[in-house]
TrEMBL record:
Example of a GO biological process term: methylation
Gene responsible for this protein: trmJ
Lineage of producing organism: Bacteria, Pseudomonadati, Pseudomonadota, Alphaproteobacteria, Rhodospirillales
CDD domains reported in the protein's UniProt record: SpoU-like_TrmJ (cd18093)
Catalytic activity field: uridine(32) in tRNA + S-adenosyl-L-methionine = 2'-O-methyluridine(32) in tRNA + S-adenosyl-L-homocysteine + H(+); cytidine(32) in tRNA + S-adenosyl-L-methionine = 2'-O-methylcytidine(32) in tRNA + S-adenosyl-L-homocysteine + H(+)
Top-tier EC class: transferase
Subcellular location: Cytoplasm
Species of provenance: Azospirillum rugosum
GO molecular function, one term: methyltransferase activity
Protein name (Swiss-Prot/TrEMBL): tRNA (cytidine/uridine-2'-O-)-methyltransferase TrmJ
Similarity comment text for this entry: Belongs to the class IV-like SAM-binding methyltransferase superfamily. RNA methyltransferase TrmH family.
InterPro entries in UniProt: Alpha/beta_knot_MTases (IPR029028), RNA_MeTrfase_TrmJ/LasT (IPR004384), SpoU_MeTrfase (IPR001537), tRNA_m1G_MTases_N (IPR029026)
Domain tRNA/rRNA methyltransferase SpoU type per the UniProt entry, residue ranges: 17-167
Subunit-structure text: Homodimer.
Keywords linked to the UniProt accession: Cytoplasm, Methyltransferase, S-adenosyl-L-methionine, Transferase, tRNA processing
Amino acid sequence: MTSGKDPNRPSVLGGPTIILVQPQLGENIGACARAMLNCGLTELRLVKPRDGWPNEKAVAAASGADLVLDGAKLYETTAEAVADLNVVFATTVRTRGMIQEFITPRTAATELRAHFDAGHKTGVLFGPERTGLVNDDLTLAEKLITVPLNPSFSSLNLAQAVLLIGYEWFQTGEIPPDRVLHTGQTRPATKAELLNFFEHLEGDLDRTGFFTTPEKRPSMVRTLRNALERMQMTEQEVRTFHGVIAALTGRRKGEP
């Protein structure tokens, strides 16, 4: 995947602290840092990383998420890592027979956003790659997050889990539109420009005998207009199609 760095676009930063408990590989920590910054999360805490800290392999895997790695804090125990936080959620795949409230990442993100907006310090715990969090760590959390995936294969790697939680968090903020029409140097066509184009097209279709059945002409015109409206044409595209029609009908520019 190509780089998504753009110094000309503003950063959207802030959110819950991500706490990785006994992560095993530096590469996994780096991948988590990358996933975090993708979602605007910058505060990373590490509890007894197996291969020590700092870790050169983490830097390489972070793909430029130095902001996260440079600020990472090291702790000896999970309890120390969450001591200053007001609200802590933890991720787990198994219920482990515990009487605890389990919520989805989407619900967790919504609740974390409410706490964050209220000024509370929040955090999410992630366990070691092979075993996940132990029960003593889970008891430090108010709620447990579990991801509803394929019951027969619900395994996620550490960075995937962080990205999934981070993405749901990011979506609770100022959510960008589902789709954006990039118009380059032009702009979306106005309705007046579109209507002028439609009339040009329909006029030439009349002259060339396209509408062979007069009573069907209104419905055929609506079909054409609906199809062309769905194209979301730009002003430049409308002008181009005017030229296409003129070329096809043999009329020169400026001719009636």
